[in-house]
Design goal:
The protein has two domains: about 220 residues, Alpha-Beta Complex (inorganic pyrophosphatase (n-terminal core)); about 140 residues, DHHA2 domain (Diaminopimelate Epimerase, Chain A, domain 1, Roll), CATH 3.10.310. It is built from 14 helices and eleven strands. The strands form two sheets. The protein has a six-stranded mixed beta sheet. The chain has a five-stranded parallel beta sheet with strand order 2-1-3-4-5. Strand 10 and strand 11 form a beta hairpin. The chain is globular and about 60 Å long. About 40% of the residues are buried.
């Protein structure tokens, strides 16, 4: 058993012994719980545990910000983590509010930089690669905030580990970090526009630490193949696999990224009624609508589609107008759909470099400013 496997087994076993520790330091990934977020949380928690001088007093735990019944849809992560997947800790495995009330909790955010709860007060460090939100957490110690628009959060985690004088990057740690970097940058595809010089630099440094020099083009292809596996998935599963929420004072939107190479058009072709979409919204805090994003990577040339669905027609009008504004630079072209439904829209997104990371801030601004039309 490798060192990180032993650590993850140990970490999960200590859920029954939290009272014996003075402090529980959680490394928490984002709510979509994708490959980048999961590996960032696991590797950074292991790193902190390894360099901790008082491990009998301070427990470092990687926590996945989702539930096990949703995580089962993440075929690429289940394959990539192999033996470690049975020792993952999910958000409902630990009572963070209870630890907070006892004054025993610290939270480190990786792959995001804010929480929609009072637990924001417990955040002591942030490592992220997304555009900063208006409601982001302000920490007094700026050295504990690393937000940089690179292709993968694992690039920033790798940079931290490479700079440490008291941690040895093993073959497995290097392998775990390089996987999400390849996946998130689409194997450094120039046409995807997601790669920065730092992604390539950190990847190359990590690659030299790997004793098992596998062909990373094969690793990338396997990850994409696993991510594209939709065997047995329902419409709701496809939407739930990779979902985030955008919340404003008057509207809540789900934002779903479909599995690799599964298009919005194909999803809409499976709909006979709006029941699946309505149930999905109901299961996601009664959201008012969903924005659906898809990515195809044929011959490494990315193609994107965007779909909209609103429970109420009066909400469709403003979001439909807003998302198509030229200043948002999505370059949307509306397509016909095989179902007669005015609350459903399908677009070809000709700006293939605009991923969810770019679309989310636009939707956050929409939700912040949205005022419902007078129903009278």
């Amino acid at each position: 058993m490798t060192d990180i496997s032993k650590y993850m087994q140990y970490a999960k076993s200590q859920l029954a012994n939290l009272a014996q520790f003075r402090l529980i330091r959680i490394v928490l990934g984002n709510e979509a719980c994708d490959l980048d977020s999961t590996i960032s949380a696991c590797v950074y928690a292991y790193f902190l545990h390894s360099i901790c001088e008082t491990p009998n007093e301070i427990l470092h735990l990687p926590v996945l910000n989702t539930h096990a019944f949703v995580f089962r849809l993440r075929h690429e992560i289940l394959w990539f983590l192999e033996e470690n997947r049975s020792n993952l800790i999910f958000i409902d495995d630990i009572n963070l509010n209870d630890l907070s009330e006892k004054g025993k909790l610290e939270i480190i955010l990786v792959d995001h930089h804010s929480l929609r709860s009072k637990l924001n007060e417990e955040v002591v460090e942030i490592i992220d690669h997304h555009q900063v939100k208006e409601n982001s957490i302000i920490l007094n110690d700026s050295s504990k905030v690393k937000i940089e628009p690179v292709g993968s959060c694992c690039t920033l985690i790798g940079e931290k580990l490479l700079a440490s004088n008291c941690f040895q990057i093993t073959d497995e740690i290097a392998y775990l970090l390089t996987g999400p970097i390849l996946f998130d940058t689409l194997n450094f595809s120039p046409s995807a526009g997601k790669t920065t010089p730092k992604d390539k630099q950190v990847y190359e440094q990590l690659f030299t630490r790997r004793t098992t020099r596998t062909d990373d083009s094969d690793l990338y292809k396997t990850l994409r193949k696993c991510a594209a596996d939709t065997t047995g998935m329902s419409v709701q599963d496809l939407l739930q696999k990779d979902v985030k929420q955008v919340v404003g004072p008057n509207i809540r939107l789900a934002v779903s990224s479909l599995p690799s190479d599964y298009t919005v058009e194909k999803l809409f072709g499976q709909l006979h009624t709006m029941k699946d979409l309505d149930e999905f919204l109901s299961n996601n805090d009664n959201a008012d609508g969903v924005v659906i994003l898809s990515l195809e990577t044929n011959d490494d040339q990315p193609k994107r589609q965007l779909g909209l669905y609103a429970k109420k027609f009066e909400n469709m009008l403003p979001i439909n107008e807003y998302i198509q504004r030229s200043e948002h630079n999505l370059d949307l072209r509306e397509r016909g759909i095989p179902i007669n439904q005015a609350r459903l829209k399908l677009f070809e997104q000709n700006n293939a470099q605009a991923s969810r990371k770019q679309v989310l801030p636009l939707l956050e601004q929409f939700a912040k400013d949205f005022v419902p039309q007078n129903s009278s």
